[in-house]
Design a protein that fits this description.
NAD; 25% strand; 21 strands; 5-stranded antiparallel beta sheet; oxidoreductase activity; FAD/NAD-bd_sf; 3 domains; FAD/NAD(P)-binding domain; 7-stranded mixed beta sheet; Enolase-like, domain 1; alpha/beta; FAD
Length: 477
């Protein structure tokens, strides 16, 4: 007979990725009894199949590219990367896909951890079925937080399951380098994985349905990365869709809508994400299973007094750092409501308001060159009705960039609101620019006037000197 027990908590968190961990951390810090439920590994997608393993694969690639731009060092790094060593280091960053350390951390903050599949079973109630069939019924006095993340979406192609395609999970956890790899998609996962596996020795073909890469950034970002991937040896084909995929004697055969036939050892589909909300009991509370959950700025699900959706599940910004930001907001809001403290929804930058989701989402794409952006692109700003001006600058003309490496290529853009003379968005493309984006984020979030930015003096000679050059371009043109 299956064992069942019942326990009451202030907060129940569904999902123990970085988002769920941060919600639990904030509610526990506020003294709320908190339970966390996870069916896979504590640490979630980011720790084991996304941010950490992908960047562990990419870091040696980018370091080698930087070194090859420096005479005196370039001669020492002309050989290929040691793929086995890169993969072993990647494995270490994932803890070899064991979550003991992160479980220990959950225990250290005083949260109760339930390993198993959690489903809503009506208002404020979560049923957990453990790996051994044990059932736990958890009730929440104040809040249930859905932090279940998202999953990769595969296209509707006949027989696709039979060929066992890669998604982002397989691409970041593979234990050997495929001789030939087809990557389908033009977004972050597609461009980063094309960069990594090409450098590790795979012959990569990148198939992009649209006109270019990274279509959520300024157009020049995708153009520069496409050029760099082509120079590195990636066969980049835009305006190309997959018509069929089969596996013949172990070889993947791809037929495109252009009539082309491509043979490969593996195929990666990086073609979008869907919410992992299909089997968490949403139907028991009148919501559509498998849907993105609409929320207010305190991350509370629209129409509910107790249900929160934090991170990918609400579809606001599918980024780990943004999900963790939301988790801090949601944790504070749950704690405030639990203690009867009023939430000032009129305060756009208050402790309980996820304003950055609308105005200042930063992102870095770890390709070579890197692309980094925050806030609105020029097109987005114009579509929103702002009177704006784009100010561009060639990063290669900055002293710090030329010192960074010979043949440096890059570009910077700031989008200026001409009514208020503040920045609505900033984009950088070039080696090492990921470390620049936080300065731009502060400028956008802080709505720092152009007149004040003149007094934020960049250190010489660093790539940050581009800020001075952008301001001069704005003044002089």
């Amino acid at each position: 007979m299956t064992e069942t027990d019942s326990n009451a908590y202030d907060v129940v968190v569904l999902g123990a990725g970085p988002v769920g961990e941060n919600v639990a951390d904030r509610t526990r810090a506020a003294g709320l009894a908190t339970a966390v439920v996870e069916s896979e590994l504590v640490g979630g997608e980011c720790s084991y199949w996304a941010c950490m393993p992908s960047k562990a694969l990419l870091r040696p690639v980018l370091a080698q590219a930087d070194a090859r731009r420096l005479p005196g060092l370039s001669q020492a790094v002309q050989g290929p990367l040691d793929a086995a060593a890169v993969l072993a280091r990647r494995n270490a960053f994932t803890g070899d896909w064991h979550d003991d350390g992160q479980v220990e951390w959950l225990n250290s903050i005083g949260a109760d951890f339930y390993r198993g599949h959690g489903r809503l079973a009506g208002p404020r109630t979560v049923e957990v079925t453990g790996p051994d069939g044990t059932r736990h019924v958890l009730t929440a006095r104040h809040a249930v937080a859905v932090c279940t993340g998202s999953r990769a979406v595969l296209p509707d192609l006949p027989g696709l399951d039979e060929i066992k395609p890669w998604t982002s999970r397989e691409a970041t956890s593979a234990q050997s380098v495929p001789g030939r790899l087809v990557v389908v998609g033009g977004g972050v996962v597609a461009t980063e994985m094309a960069t990594a596996w090409q450098a590790l020795g795979s012959r990569v073909t990148l198939l992009v349905r649209g006109k270019g890469l990274l279509n959520r950034m300024e157009p020049f970002a995708g153009e520069m990365i496409a050029d760099a991937l082509t120079e590195a040896g990636v066969d980049v084909r835009t305006g190309t869709s997959v018509q069929s995929v089969t596996r013949e004697n172990g070889t993947v055969v791809v037929v495109t809508d252009q009539g082309g036939r491509i043979e490969a050892d593996e195929i990666l589909f990086a073609t979008g994400r869907a919410p992992r909300t299909d089997d968490i009991g949403l139907d028991t509370i009148g919501l559509e299973p498998g849907s993105w959950l609409a929320v207010d700025d305190s991350l509370r699900v629209t129409g509910s007094e107790w249900l929160y959706a934090v991170g990918d599940a609400n579809h606001r910004a599918l980024l780990t750092h943004q999900g963790k930001y939301q988790a801090r907001i949601a944790g504070a809001a749950i704690a405030a409501r639990a203690s009867g403290v009023p939430i000032l929804e009129s305060d756009p930058w208050g402790a309980h308001t996820a304003t950055a989701d609308h105005a200042a989402v930063p992102q870095v794409v770890f390709t070579d060159p890197e692309a980094a952006a925050v806030g609105l692109s020029l097109a987005e700003a114009e579509q929103a009705g702002h009177r704006v001006r784009a100010v561009d600058y060639d990063l290669a003309s900055v002293s710090g960039a030329s010192l960074y490496g010979d043949g440096y290529r890059g570009r910077a853009r700031m989008v200026v609101d001409l009514e208020r003379e503040i920045l609505l968005g900033v984009t950088f493309v070039g080696p090492g620019v990921g470390e620049l984006i936080h300065s731009a984020t502060i400028a956008v979030v802080g709505q720092v006037p152009i007149s004040r930015l003149w007094h934020a003096v960049p250190s010489y000679p660093t790539i940050s000197e581009v800020w001075l050059r952008l301001l001069e371009s704005y003044r002089d043109n």
